[in-house]
Amino acid sequence: MIDDGLIDVSLQDGAVTLMGTVSSLEEKRLAESLARVLGVRSVDTSGLDVQWWADEAALRDSKYVWKSDADIRTAIKDAVLYDPRLLSFPIEPDVSEGWVTLRGTVDNLEAKRAAARVARNTVGVFGVTNRLKVRPPSDLSDEVIAADIRGRLLVSPITESNGITVMVHGGKAILEGTVASYLERMEAERLASKAAGVTRVSNRLRVDYEPASREPYHGSDFPMRSAIIDRMPPGRTDREIHDEIHEELVWSPFVDVEQVNIDVADGRVTLTGTVETWREYYAAEENAYEGGALIVSNRLEVK
Fold first, then answer.
1. pTM for the full model?
2. Do domains 69-134 and 142-221 have the same CATH topology?
């Protein structure tokens, strides 16, 4: 994880220059990759020095920075403007003491979800109320919406549409059937949420290779959770999992590791403690999966 407090960013005519300190060449390459956002023509990292001391965990203390409501609103507006999923929609963030309320209209559910994630990931935000309305550019019948979803499933290299039944009632898409992986299940929901006119998605797809009790995916905030579990190396001890999760939390820009207790038993992780925001709550759970947890019981309390 990159410590952005040690890096200065300048931009001129689409050319980004990064100056500062990183702890490794891998972190330097990651910084360059993250800087290549929409509109960037080139990235110069020659000003980044690699120093071993930048890897010290103490540098991650006091990660939270207070921002005024005006600063938060400007940051969200800028992020929306440069996000290709959102730039065409009139999204207005109202901010009161760090709490963001999103208002406006979008033409698909995926854009509504993306806007909420953008707001949650903005520095200084403590919570988000998503009041964006999904309104297609024209009146669409349920049959037309369902046909759109089936077409998206058909052309996707991930989904196997023959195993998925699509029904739409009043803008609510219902997915039923059996798929071969959690990745396929997630992708089917994502594709359905991108169809114009869909206001909700009920994902009833079953995965045939793993018991339901092992299902790591719930909701759309962390869509890569199941892929993380699929990549886990076998034979890791509870101590190794504990240490890896602790390392993930140390370098997380969203979580204060001092507030989270980690207990591991047979690969099952229990998180306890108190966190500041729901964003921190979900980020800690995601870090636990990234650290190698098979199942996470998230018992963190949100102040």
1. 0.52
2. yes
